[in-house]
Design brief:
Layout: E1 2-6, H1 10-21, E2 25-29, H2 33-40, E3 45-46, H3 50-55, E4 62-65, H4 71-83, E5 89-92, H5 98-108, E6 114-121, H6 126-129, E7 132-136, H7 139-144, H8 146-152, E8 160-164, H9 168-196, H10 204-211, H11 220-231, H12 247-257, H13 263-275, H14 281-294
Parallel strand pairs: 1-2, 1-4, 2-3, 4-5, 5-6, 7-8
Antiparallel strand pairs: 6-7
């Protein structure tokens, strides 16, 4: 099956290679010419413009967009909408806000252009292990793209599914990432408690390895925790600054709009914000208040 790929970052390049290995014809473009040259060495057809990419695909065309969410994705979709023909499909595999996806579907429908949103999980391991894909879009279009999804998934019948109309794939992936925030935070707090119990001299890597097998808290995230602790038991070479790419915020906002209590995900997001503060004003104010009402000592700078 033919597919165009726009965006050859690590994940996009890996997806292009996996599709190629499963017998698909892949035409790829990226603003970074070096990325295009690198993927061309793998057998993918590299091009130097969106126009060239479209010209090398036969109708109905399928173009997978794998660029950062927000303005980059908007720019690519706007450009493709001017180049594609009725019946063609844009596949957004990034972490776009589901509301943006729904808006795009409505805007493209009068041109008889389709958009399929694919919430994609798997990271850098996807090339070898396959990707988990949560797919939104029209039934007929998703059915036509089935060979692509079967090739990218861990197995043809596992790890992917059509979850609903346009926007549904990105919505489910948004919640997936919110859950991920909570799981990661729980592991982080648990291991910090064990590290703080210094008199027991616990080997955190050993404990992670024990939990990986048979434990009710075993998971892929725990596997990655063990890998990180094996490489650097004290995590001395990592700064405790944790960014977020937006999905956790959107999940919390949706929970508020839907009147659904989500304290774990919300607090996990707040913990990421705390990690970015080198000197917390709120902590200073707490110390000052304790001094004011109780005469408790404060540490002066």
């Amino acid at each position: 099956m033919e597919i165009g790929m726009v965006g050859l970052g690590k994940m996009g390049a890996n997806m292009a290679q996996r599709l190629l290995k499963h017998g698909h014809h892949v035409v790829a473009f990226d603003l970074n010419e070096e990325n295009v040259r690198a993927i061309a060495k793998q057998g993918v057809v590299g091009v130097d413009s969106l126009e060239d990419l479209i010209s090398k695909l036969t109708s109905p065309r399928h173009v997978w967009v794998m660029v950062p969410s927000g303005k980059p994705t908007t720019s690519v979709i706007q450009s493709l909408a001017l180049l594609l023909s009725p019946g063609d499909t844009i596949i957004d595999g990034g972490n776009s806000n589901y509301k943006d996806t729904m808006n795009w579907a409505a805007q493209l429908r009068p041109q008889n252009l389709h958009i399929v949103d694919v919430g994609t999980s798997g990271g850098v391991w996807g090339l070898a292990e396959g990707y988990s894909m949560m797919i939104g879009g029209d039934d007929e279009v998703v059915e036509r793209l089935t060979p692509i999804f079967e090739s990218l998934a861990p197995a043809s019948d596992k790890g992917w599914g059509h979850v609903g109309p346009s926007g549904a794939g990105h919505f489910v992936k948004m919640v997936h990432n919110g859950i991920e925030y909570g799981l990661m935070q729980a592991y982080a707090e648990g291991f910090e408690i064990m590290k703080a119990k210094s008199d027991l001299d616990l080997d955190l890597y050993q404990i992670a390895e024990i939990w990986r097998f048979g434990s009710v808290v075993r998971s892929w995230l725990l596997d990655l925790t063990a890998d990180a602790l094996k490489e650097d038991p004290e995590l001395q070479h990592i700064r405790g600054y944790v960014p977020d790419s937006g999905e956790g915020r959107w999940t919390v906002a949706e929970a508020i709009d839907l009147d659904v209590p989500a304290p774990v995900i919300t607090l996990a997001l707040m913990a990421r914000f705390v990690s970015r503060q080198e000197d917390s004003f709120s902590a200073k104010l707490l110390a000052a208040l304790r001094n004011q009402f109780g005469g408790h000592a404060v540490i002066r700078e």
